[in-house]
Amino acid sequence: MPEQLLYAVEVTLNGLMAGVLYSLVALGFVLIFKASGIFNYAQGVMALFAALTLVGIMNGQVPFAHLINAIFGTEVHHFGWHVPAVLAIVLTMVVMVGFAWVVNHFVLRHLVNQEPIILFMATIGLAYFLEGFGDLMWGSDIKKLEVGLPQGGSFWIEENTQWLGFGNENFYGFFLDRLDLVATVIAAILVIGLVAFSQYTKQGRALRAVADDHQAALSVGISLNFIWVLVWSLAGFVALVAGIMWGAKSGVQFSLSLIALKALPVLMLGGFTSIPGAIVGGLIIGVGEKLFEFSIGPLVGGATENWFAYVLALVFLVFRPQGLFGEKIIERV
Amino acid sequence: MFYREAGDFKTSYAQDAQTFPIAFDRYRYYAVLAVAFGIIPFVINDYWANAIFLPLLIYTIAAIGLNILTGYCGQVSLGTAGFMAVGAYACYKFMTGMDIWLMGSEGEWVRYALPPINIFFSVILAGAVTAAVGVLFGLPSLRIKGFYLAVATLAAQFFLVWLFNKWEWAYNYSASGQINAPTRGVFGYEVTGPTAEPWAAYLFCLVMVVGAAWIARNLTRGSVGRKWMAIRDMDIAAEIIGVNPLTAKLSAFAVSSFFIGVAGALFFSVYLGAVEVTEAFGIQKSFLVLFMVIIGGLGSIFGSFAGAAFMVLMPVLLKNVLVVRMGWATDLEAHFEFIIVGALIVIFLIAEPHGLAQLWRLAKEKLRLWPFPY
Question: Which of A254, A273, B67, B338 would staple B71 via disulfide (CB 3.0–4.6 Å)?
Fold first, then answer.
């Protein structure tokens, strides 16, 4: 195979992996949108907050240490213990469930029956709040997240794909990040788990009922409050997984919440209400932006990844406003 | 007591249609103008101009622009900062002398450099350029609605910022990629550049704000504004009663982008003086202007002033209280700023989705009846 084509294949594979990570964030959006019609802008910051909390718990950081020191003039920073990763993840999940309850109790309950755009703006406010709160709680420095996920390239794949070069000495096999491979597997498990949950459990069925019709669900005795807490907890869980993946890849820092913005074009491509759509959309965006950067990027000065996803989604939407898998938008007067 | 229609008789249609129908409102408006033009320029110093008045006035123009699009026409935009960047770079090109290539008689490209244009006209022209770009990015709004449009405007935000990072012509091939405002003046008084007097810069922005508010107010209560509001309230119904969605939506995008472009031009030339696009016109700025509009009140010109004042003054106040008075670290203050802004937005949306403008309206209603409750 010619060299350029091999590189293109490698770029495509890496794009697929990156796309999986986009899909992970997009999944959280879809879950909340389906169940409550809220477009949760705070999803990205939730991922950041979850990752911050995880790192903080693992390292035994004192929450609000900075604030306490500023008020009382003390010098506390660490409890001096280290919590094992699994326990820390469980504790973080408890925090995220608590957050879901707080959001539902203090924000969403008071905004029932408001227009979607008001709810959207409320979640932007929530995102700001959570961003400041997370930084205040755990400090705003860039943190390293080590939960035992493999790092670096996979030598196994590199060695076993070398033959594809057919004696081409410039080709050393495909370079794939092991972390991306793990992320792909975890994302697959997560999606299967979510689908199984919504198909085969009582709560899952209630969730789908609420997604179909709020009032009908209420009338057969499903508690909307419970479902909303449940769905925000689920979104918190997805955010935690996404936060771990991105955090292990590029450190836990503010840009994590901006990566989540990339999930928006993914959603627009896939449709806001479709879980498979989120996955496919993520893959398309991931591959598309990597290939575009690879082929057109050098001609226009590079860094096209910043905007390609949005422009692709924009162009796509002009032709199909409901996205790939979205429900057809029917408007009545 | 003071705030009554009683005794204020209208004897002509012109009086009936005036912007401030109540005498007290009118006098208050004249008083504010008199203070803004007659007193503040004489007492203003560098700190007050740069920390409060210039950002306040410039953000007000941006907020008016976004309010026309989001508050009056119902098209949510997250691309405000991108359009501000267009205004800033267009203004820079006009004030340093736009260079263009035209086809010569032999079919070769000849470079012409236009002479530098007066700063006032540069700013207006920058607004016009931004309006054209705004219409271009507004085209999808004919097909896409609601959230989808909000996310689609993100394309404008990220693409435009990237463009001004990479397009060397836009920053005159400067090595740093920055644009620096040269010294320019109006009527012989410098308003841009490092040696500009604070009062001159302030008055320049003030004139722009008053002009923008005057145009916006009269547009929104005229037939154009009523069309926008019809589209906002229900676009299909508006179409059925004869509002052309193409012209209504695109005119909203054009007018809105014009104001945002003017704001961006002033932000660069008068306020900051030097701009690096990713830093000055990032996505955070888009949200900042959106918050101003929400907190101030969607669909209200007064709300744009109130929202801009709130978002500009609050960090200054927080900084003064927490950092100067209590001696806290600046990063703690920054975190609190995020928390307070976020919480305030949520609280506002819960308590008063129509913002500060609605509170003001309610207060006026109470004043009108005072001392009786009903």
Answer: B67
